Amino acid sequence: MHVQRSSLADLQMAVILPCYNEEQAIGKVIRDFQKALPEAAIYVFDNNSTDRTAEIARSEGAEVVHVALKGKGNVVRRMFADVEADIYIMTDGDCTYDVSVCGQLVDKLLAENLDMVVGCRVDAGESENYRRGHRFGNRLLTGSVRRIFGGQFTDMLSGYRVFSRRFVKSFPALARGFEIETELTVHALELRMPWGEVATKYGSRPDESESKLSTYRDGFRILKTIGRLYMVERPLEFFSIFTLVLAAASIAFSIPVFEEYFATGLVPRLPTAVLATGLMLSALLAFVCGLLLDSVTRGRQEVRRFAYLSIPGVSQKIEQ
After folding, report:
1. CA 20 to 30 Å from 8, out of 50, 130, 307, 317?
2. Is 191:168 a contact under the CB 8 Å cutoff?
3. Distance CA 253, CA 247 (A)
């Protein structure tokens, strides 16, 4: 499907920028978006900044919304709830993403009738901004999501994304911090939404601007989120692992007990026999939990799918 940009006059586009203490960069980010997407409304969601972020954003013509709850996930939840648009362009307010390619991301979303397009970061030479630890962690975490949930994402943690309205309004947004990108990715994979990627340059922050991302603390939170989503979205697989481990341990402990019983007719290792029995019962309990939770998960997925389908796609609105 090919879409002419001239036919998009009836589509509402919103640029949504989560910000915390970005007075050094937010002005340039807003001006760049005004130049690249003059038809889009620009919203800055200020997460309790202690500097002049909100003041500068207002002076540049953006609509500023204050979000009291700390954390990027809380900001994204508020953005998705408050802003009404057909296409959403989300990026960070730190001037590290290449705003000039946002038109390419929007065009890809429209031309291929996608629900999400991710701007995959390509290091533009400023290695101090995209640190080696961040690169390694990104590869590790993105690879983990690929193995568990499928898909071929190359930069799961990118904060530069374009969404359709039906993606945004069907997304529950449960994360509180930087693990929100993981939830966005898994949401698309679990509902089997069409998505795409576009390579984008990733530069350094302006002078005197500091990253809010902690390599180890936030990396651990993201890893924990992947584990939680694995349990919630794939409970049968998750609990089957415990079933196999517990059952194997039970069999290992029971082998010498059965050998002695068949040889002598006695069970002298009663504590071992009790332990083996308990482990096998635990394995069966884990399997039953997995089966029950799998039914609950399928029901939740159906509800999210119906919410997704209740909203017309962008291509349908263009045709109207």
Report:
1. 307
2. no
3. 10
210, 231, 252 - which closes a domain: 231
Question: Of all helices (H) and strands (E), which one includes residue 227?
Answer: helix 215-233
pLDDT tens, position by position, 158-215: 999 999 999 999 998 888 888 899 999 999 999 999 999 999 988 777 666 566 666 6
- Do 220 and 273 reside in the same domain of the chain? no
In which domain, by residue range, is 124 found?
5-231
Residue 285 domain-assigned (yes or no): yes
Closest to 250 in 3D by CA, of 271, 234, 268, 272: 272
Tell me the three state secondary structure of residue 195: strand
pLDDT of residue 236: 95
Walk across the sheet containing 41-46 and list its strands.
Answer: 63-66, 41-46, 13-19, 87-90, 161-164, 116-123, 195-202
**Tens digits of residue pLDDT in 42-75:** 999 999 999 999 999 999 999 999 999 999 999 9
Q: Within a domain: residue 193?
A: yes
Q: Do residues 160 and 24 both lie within one domain?
A: yes
In this predicted structure, the answer to whether residue 6 has a pLDDT above a threshold of 50 is no
